[in-house]
Amino acid sequence: MLTQNEALNLYKKRNAYLKGHFKLSSGLHSEYYMQSAMVLQYPHDAYKLCSSIAEHFKDKKIDTVIAPAMGGVLVSYDVARALGENVKSIFAERVDGKLTLRRGFRIEKTDNVLIVEDVITTGKSVNETIDLVRTYTDNIVGIGVLADRGGNFDSKGLDYFPLIKLDIVNYEPDSCPLCKQGVPLEKPGSRFIKK
Question: Hey, which of 18, 40, 82, 131 would disulfide with 54, CB 3.0 to 4.6 Å?
Answer without folding.
Answer: 82
